[in-house]
Amino acid sequence: MSQPCAANKCIRESRGLCDCCRQQLCIQHLSEHNAALINQLNPLTDEFNALSDRLNTLSIQNITGKSRRKLEQWRDRSHQQIDRLFKQKCEEIDRIVNDKIQKQREDANRLQNKLAEVIREQEATRQRIDSLTSAIHDLKEQMTELENTSFRVTTQRLIIDDTLISIEAITEHELNLSNLPHPCKTIKRPAGSQAVICSSDNYLLIHQKPNLCLIDVETSIVEEATWDHESIWDICWCSTLDRFIVNEGSSIFLIDESTMAIEKIKTIEEINWLSCTTSENHLFLSTNTYGSIVKKYDLLPSIKLVIEWKSPFTCTDNEWISSIRYNNEKLGLLIRNNPEKSLRMELRSADTFDRIWTLEFDIVCEQNVFFRYCSLTCNEWLVADYEKKRLLQVTNDGKLKAVVPYKNIPYYCILFRNMLAISTNIPIDIYKL
Known about the structure:
By secondary structure, the chain is an alpha+beta fold. It folds into 3 domains: 16-56; 69-121; 177-432, TolB, C-terminal domain (Neuraminidase, 6 Propeller), CATH 2.120.10. The chain is 26% helix and 31% strand. It contains 3 helices and 26 strands. The chain has helices spanning 27-56, 60-121, 126-147, and strands at residues 16-17, 24-25, 185-187, 197-199, 204-208, 211-215, 221-226, 234-238, 243-247, 252-256, 262-264, 273-278, 282-287, 294-298, 304-309, 319-327, 330-337, 342-349, 355-360, 372-375, 381-385, 390-394, 400-405, 410-416, 419-424, 428-432. The strands form 7 sheets. A 4-stranded antiparallel beta sheet has the order 3-26-25-24, with no helix packed on it. Strands 4-5-6-7 form a 4-stranded antiparallel beta sheet, with no helix packed on it. Strand 13 (282-287) and strand 14 (294-298) form a beta hairpin. Helix 2 (60-121) runs antiparallel to helix 3.
């Protein structure tokens, strides 16, 4: 005996089992359920078409551009190392020849003086004539030997190991720092150490009085060098030069990551600098003055000034730029207004310095201490708010995403590999993300 249709208030006999609701339905309600299922295909089709359009318009250059630029920088640095070695060896050959020529000239000058003395005194003797003749003969032989000088240049084949470059596909994910876990590691520093921190692709650079130290992912000291200059105001990493750039307040220094050799940049004028950052091709410096000036320098072939932006384009005469950071063709600025004791963040074009967006923070700047921040994944930002002991996460379109209370006073923050480092008034906290 057939069952009645399971649909509400339907008195017709069921004709089959509905695939979507698993109930016995009549022909009419089976048709209605089938039509409803078919209608659900339409938004799926629209969504698939949208995905298909995204796939067709996907730009390989946009995906690989940043990585290719990094490979190009490595190639350029490698070429520069080869050029430096080539120049060094050419100069070594020239120096050897010049030394030989200089010795010949000195010998020739001595012989000329002796000959002139004999002629002037008119006291030629057979012994003197024989001595001069012998000396000229020796000089002639030495000249012939010099003219026939050659060099045996022994070179080793340049071995380029494929492991010099490793490539790993990664996907950036937005971070949500509202529930920051406990630190996985802490780095303690001796009294008098400065809070400044910076990261390269491989290491974290910190100050442990009296040294600058390279720290690896295990928080072990890999290299260190004594810092015997003035206080450090800011540090940034320059992948193009493979160097850290250190702002000492008036002078700018380069620090070689491999050797920790410290070199002053002589092409940058000595004025009151406050903050620094780099792109692939440029160095940006901001001054420690009201109405801050931002100067843009070429990195290669040598560091030289390209352009400078002044007040009121940078900020007003009663404001100063506390920090400047580069990320993805944009410059982030933290600007402090002195009369209002307020702080805001602005995003500017790294090319034209045009303003993209502005975000005002609910911070009252009571202390005369500069604010620092860093870029996060997906073009977001993280500000260290020492006034209220918190971290402020900012979206890529200039919205406040998360406010993270902090137990100590945060001064610096930086992404380091898959970790976040927070430099406070006590230790440096390391978080695994």
